[in-house]
Each structure stands twice: as structure tokens, then as C-alpha cells.
Amino acid sequence: MNTTTETTDTQAAAAAPNRPPQLRAARVRRQGVIKFVILFVTLAFLFVPLVSMLVFTLRHPLSGRWSLAPWIAIFTGNGESLGADLTVLWQGLGASLALCAVTVVLMLLLMVPTMVIVHIRSKALERAIEWVATLPLTIPAIVLVVGLGPIYRWLSSAVFDTNPIWLCFAYVVLVMPFAFRAIAVGLNSIDVKTLVEASRSLGASWPKVFFRVIIPNLWQSILSASFISIAVVLGEYTVASLLGRMNLQVALYQLGQSNSQISTAMSLLALLFGVVLLVALDLISEHIGRSRTGETKEGK
Amino acid sequence: MTASIAQHGPVATKGAGPSATSASSAIARHRKELGTFAVTVPFFAYTACFLLAPTVIVVVGAFQTRDGGFTLANFSKLFEANTVSAFVTSIIVSIASSLIGAVVGGLASYALVIGSKPNGLLRRMVSAISSVLAQFGGVMLAFAFIATIGINGIGTMLIKQVTGLTVNPNWLSSLPGLVTVYCYFQIPLMIIIFLPAVDSIRPQWREACESLGGNTFQYWTRIACPILAPRFISAFLLLFASAFSAYATAAALFSQRSILVPLMIQGAMRNEMDPNQQGFAQVLAFAMIVVVAIVMLLSHAVEKRAGRWQ
Amino acid sequence: MSLAQQNNVTAGEQAEHEFKNDPTATLEGVRGKDVTKAAKALLKDSATRGGGIRMQDVVKIYPGSSVRALDDFNLDIKPGEMVVLLGGSGCGKSTALRSLAGLEDIQGGRILVGGQDVTGVPVNKRGMSMVFQAYSLFPHMTAVENVEFGLEVRGVGREERRRIAMEQLELVGLADQANKFTQQMSGGQQQRVALARALAIKPRVLLLDEPLSALDAKVRVQLRDQIRRIQLTTGTTTVFVTHDQEEALAVADRIGVMNHGRIEQIAAPQDLYQRPATEYVATFIGLTNRLPGASDGEEAVVFGQRVPLLPGSKRGDPVAVLVRPENIALARAGETANAAGEHARVEVIHFLGAVARVDCEISSGEYQHWNKGEQLKVTVQLPAGELPAGLAPGDEVVVTPRPVAALAC
User: ABC transporter domain spans which residues (chain C) (predicted)?
Assistant: First the structure.
């Protein structure tokens, strides 16, 4: 009742002598508190290990000395000061980066043309492909490895060698569900059929339709499929370690046995790379989205 | 008027078309279908080699004797005490971490959506971080927790300095420790899966509920929870499958002990030459497929039930 | 349309009037003794159900904004009346409705329903129910479960609430769809379920927030007539918000035209059209010509023709006189006996069935300053039969305002 004397809100005081009860605002404030508590606790749980990792790399666990040595070792490529041999790490990193590239290319070649054509032509085949492509979610990597073991034993003796790059065949299967979803989202958000019919009626050949019309419209989903594939490949440990090949994670594990600080620092870097990829994707898609809507506004 | 006239034109020509060239168009259609199928051949051939073949090898291997005959004997190992306990541990860890992940992740999704702009900075930041952390399993995750609460972990030392208590150095390899570590990728995974579900809750539902006389409790029990329940359950099941199949994190945390099914498979694969271990890896892998397949079928059934009204 | 609307009084007043003065009069197609019963029922119903509404000096400022979405907003609604709030986007019409419902806090003023101050009463205790623009039905419930919801939270027994819900669905003509999930229904059906749900709790006030804007034109017309019919039979006090003037004219007892968080004018549809109080109202509802004239406050001279003025008109020379297209006469040049009028050239002729609309351009250059330096244009509407035979674009005509009261501003 006597809020007028207490309140400093001039607007309310000017509006009426008795400010009506602000029931909705009170609820918004209550929700705000709940929201803050939930997000604070969740984010704290997610960030504490990351911060610990950072501190762990800077402070020697036994002597308690603070130094940048692990980071210097990584960026100079010389781990002698810490008594660590980094060749394994570079081997693993090289293998993983090469695997990323090969896996992404193979995945795109295998998925994009098939999915586009099936999307236009046959609902039944599209469902079949969806079923197959999402199957790896039901068959865990550890199970797949049991079956891949004999296949890779045969492949490495009869066809290829034991180079880790051949892991790409297994990795394409692992990234398939994620890639499928990303591309399917793109296909469903544009009217591919009309696009194709329109450009065919304008006299474009099939390759021209594919590269000049469909791919530019799917650009965003292709990018997102590629990024998620890179993230999966960089983090892959199960298949590589059980098939006895080297990649980044296997190298990190091995290095972790002798120098946990360097491997922790490298893990943080890999994570940072992942965040940068995802944020870049977010920014790119927002940019594409904005320029598209901007165009339509001008059109109107 | 004009619209109906315009519609008649194409229909008439369409009607005339097929009757004149029906034979040739049937062949053309057939050729087109064949062409479509031909395009999918590389995809299906590839998946046959690297997805179907390994699966078949696992399934066949589970039923095979050393010299290739059919047997069910391999399955007897499934009922040995340590195998059973590995399955029980795996399932307990998966259920516990999925429950915590689903509840915390679900609440976080709600907190991100409620009363915020659909494309707010906080929300975009958290979902970008979540998509990275959901993939952040394996060796790196093990390092993160070793750095936090391992023997020389930062958390361990802080606790010791502040409270004087010593954290059990084996806590990370205990059940609660493992559940905590798994939660680290379960919570972000839940946020990614569940955000769209919370987005689909319309503010009008709450306003309608209130204007019809419902209070907050009635809104949650009669409207919001029943609407979210199917997607919450199917998300929980997906989280269960992801925890149950996780290998790398556990492998990096325990190098020797085979307390989880994936670790047991690893052990069996290493000892494949041992005649006692014949087909054991395949049997375990087969059992894992069965468990995950049941979970996926359940999740499908829940979604289908909700599909009645979605 | 209904009796009440024609005579510009509320349904309640209409019933009372019929009952007292002439028990044999027609009421909604019933005759003789039945009308007494109908009127009595109507009166009783509106007395128990329809609360009058008073919104007094209501101020609404959205958080983080300095604009007053409602600026000393005043509105009085009699029991059983249907008032439409009409205005463009951002005029505050939805804010007014949501404040009345309690879905928005107000920063000043008070709201009374049936004489009781509800300013501090939470939404779910106000006894009002709302129909939203779209998407407000609960998707996991069937149509009949949706309608039951309001009764369920009030603790009405299972059988009783099913019976009431079915009655309501019957009223909106959807009894046969009762067990369908609402997402399987068409937009029009969904809004009818929403209406049944809102009515099932027998609200003191029914609030409709653009309930028809998400629907097809044809369904819109059907449903708005159905809403009006149901409102008249139940006698529920109703506030209807829309941006569609045709909708407003069709259903309202009174229309409040809103602008900048206030009601510019509130009056019966016909009054609003024929006697607009402000330029905003005149231009918002229907078409109008803005013609130059000399005004003494009582009368204006436009194109040499005397035109009586509405109260509130400005005096001066020149002023803008707002003349409806149907209040302008058109004749071929040289065929008119009247000395007044301006020569014009026909630009376009639109045939709209019963009427025709002719867009003309005044030939004389002396009015250019009225139209940003371009030739003044005049739109004339007349019954299609009165169109001069063979009139074609380019023809010379004379346009003369008719002596019908207009607003000068």
C-alpha cells in the first residue's frame, strides 16, 4: 500500500498512487532464480574438469612447480626438457588429420549423390538408406571391432598394409548416422524436387543441376556433416586401439602413461579445436541464414 | 473461375499422354527405376562390406565351434559369474548415468529455453559447447577426470588442503566415480537431444491452462510433463545405449580390470588364440547388440505411441 | 444479422426491451410465448454469467521499454455485450486483452469485473477464459479432453464434466469429432474446440485474441458468425480483438478503435462508419477520400457543394473533408444539372458485383498541393446500375460530394 513512498520507480509512481501487484513479474523473477541455479550447477560441473585440466598442465603434480613446459614442448615439438618423446604424438596427430580428410571425402562421395537422387526418386529406397545409415547407432563401435578384426587382418595382408589410413573405411561407417542426419535436415528444408524440375525445364544437364543447384543449397548441411565427422574421427579411440593402429587418441593414451601433462595439454587443444569448429559452423550457418533472408526481403 | 479453367488444361493433356505412348513410357519408367537403384549400389555395397559383414561375422562367430560347426556352447560363458557381474555393472552404470544425465540435461534444456529469446547468446553458447562435450568421450575425458580427482588431481589436492580429507585414489574406478565420469558426456548429449523437445512447448499452453483455472502444479502434471514424457523417455533410452556402448573412457581409466562388458570384449579379443576363449568376444558382442537393439526398439515404441498425437 | 446489432444495443438490453414492451416481437426467429421464455432465460443468464467490465486508467509498460503500450486506457463493457477492439499491429489491442485476462501485469490503473476489483487476482482465479490465435489446444488430449480440462481443474466429477464437454462440442458442431486428437483437425475445427473449451467453464468474460486470423477466408466468415450466434445465445460478456475491420463490423455490439494504447472512439459499427470522431477512425474503417474544403465548423464547401459536418470537425480553409466513396455522385461531363462539382478523368473502373468503384483524377491542377504535387484522385462508389452507360477509362466526368455528414480535420 505504501509502496509510493518506498519505490524509486518514477514511472510507476507517476502512473498511479497505488502500484498494482506485479504477479507476472514476480513469477519471471522466480523463474530467473531457478534458471540461474540450474544452469550454474550444470555449467560448473562441465567446466570444473576443464579448468582442472588447464591447471594440471601448468603445475607439476609432484613438485608443485608452476611452468609452461608442457605447452612449450607441444608448440616447439621438443619434449626433451620433460623427458618425453613426442614422435608418437606427431605420428598419431598426422594419422588422425589424414583420416579426417579421407573420411570426410569418402563420406561425402558415398552419401550426398545417393541421398539426393533417392530423395527425388524413391521414398522406399530413402527409408532403406536411412535405416542402414543409422544402424551404427545400434551396433556399438566395440561390437563392430569384433567383426572388423578378421576383415582388417585379411585386408592388411592381402590388399593393403597396416597403415592407419585404412581405418577410414571403418570411420565412414562410424560417422554415417551423424552425417546422414545433417544432410537429411538440409534435404528436407529445401524443395529439391521443384528445384530439379525447374532447372531441368530450363535445360540444365544432370551434372549441372547437381553441382550448380543442389550442392549450393545443401552447402550448410554438407559443412555440418563434415565438421561432425571431423569431431568424431579426432576423438576415435576404440577401433584404432583394438585394431592395433596409431591415431591421435592412441598416441595420447600411450603418452599419458609416461607424461600425463603433455597429453592433457594436447587433449585440451583437441577440445579447443572442436569448440572452434562448432562455433565456426554456428557462425557460418547464421551468416548464410542472414544473407538468404536478406535477399528475400530485398525481393519483396 | 479462372483458377478452375487453368486447372483443366494440364489434366486433359495428361490424360491424352499415357494412352498414346503407354508402352514406351512403361519401359522408360522401368529404366528410370533401375537407374535410381544403380545409383545406390555404391552405398549399399560399401555398407555391406564394412557394416553388414562385421555384424554377420559377430553373429556367426557366436554360434560357431573352433572348426566351423554350429554350437550353442559358446553362450554358456555368458552365464559365468564374472560375465554376469560385468553385464550387471554395465547396466547399473548406464542406467544411473542416463538417469542423472537425463534429469540434469532436461532441467538445463528447460532453463535454456524458458523466458529466453529463441536465438539468445547463452543458449547458442551452451548448445555449441554441449555438441563438443557430447563427443568428448574416451581418453581425453579420462584425462580430464584424472586431472580433477585422480591421485594428483587438482580437486583432490584442494579437498585435502581445505578439509584435510584424503580422496580415495581409487574413487574414479569405483561405481560412483564411473557414473560421474559418464555423466560428463551424458548431460551435454541430453541437452542436444532434448532442447528441440522443450522448444516445442508453446507458451500458449501455459496461458490457456491458467486462463482455464489451472495452477502451476496442474500445468506441470497435466500438460507439460505428459507432453514431454515420450521424448524424455526416448532420450533417456538413447543415453542408456550411448553409455552401454561406451568403451574408450572406461578403457583409459582401467587398464587391467574387466568390470564392464566392453572391457571384457577387449580382453576376449586379446586372448582369441586361447581355446577356452573360443567365440567369447563374439558372444559378448552379440549380447551387446541384443541389449542395444531392445533399447532402440523400446525407444521407437515410445515415439510411435506419442506419434498418435504428434 | 442479429437484432441486437441492427439496433446498436447489447444483447441483454435487447432481450429486456423485447420482454417489457412487446412479448410478441421476433427474437432470433422465435415467436409468441417462446420469446418470453427466451428473453427471460437470456436475462437470467447474462445476470449470472456476464460480468460488466471496467478498465480504468490502465497503464502498461513492457519491461525494458519506455513506451506505454496502454496509455491511461479506459474501457467500459456492459454485461452480455460483445466489444471488439480493432486496430493495426502494435496499437495495444492484444495488450489490453491480456491485461484484462491477467496475463500481463499493469503498471497503473485498475480493472473491475462485475464491480469486483481483479487487479491483483492471478489469471487462474479471474474466471475469464481465452481463445488464442492458434496452437493453444493441448496436443496430447483429444478434443473432448481439451474441453473437459477447465472443469477437471475445478474438480468437477468425471461424468458430469464429460456431459458438459459434449454439450459444448455439440454447440460448436463437433460432437462427432470428440475423440480425435486436435492435431488431426483442420484449423477451423481446432478453433471451434478452443471456443468450446473456453465456454465450458461458463466464464464471466470470454476473451478472443485474434481467433480467426490464422484461418482461410471462407472458414473465417463461417466461424465468426458462429461465434456471434453462440455469444448471443449464452449472453457471455465478450471482448474480441482483431485487426480485420470487416470481422469487427460483422460481430460487434460496439467497436473500440485503438491507436497508440488508447481507444480513439468506441461506438456501434454503423455509428463508427457514418460518424467517425477522428481522422484515424475514418481512414481505418472503410475507404475514404480526403478532399479539400472550406469549413466553418458546421458546414464545409467541397468542390462548390455544401456538406454538413460531424461534431468535432475543424474549422478553417482549407481543411481536409473526409468523404466516403459512396457519398460522391458521378455524372458524365455536361450531363449534370448541378452547378457544383469538379471535372475529372476516369482512370480505372472496378466492377465489384452489386457496386462499381471508379478511380478518377481531378482535371484541374489547383488541388495538387493536396496530393504531394500530383493530381488529386477521387474514388467514387455507386450501385453498378447507376454507372453511366458505356463509361470507359479516359472519359470526362463530373464528381460532386453528396450532402451527407462528413468529418473535417
Answer: 53-285
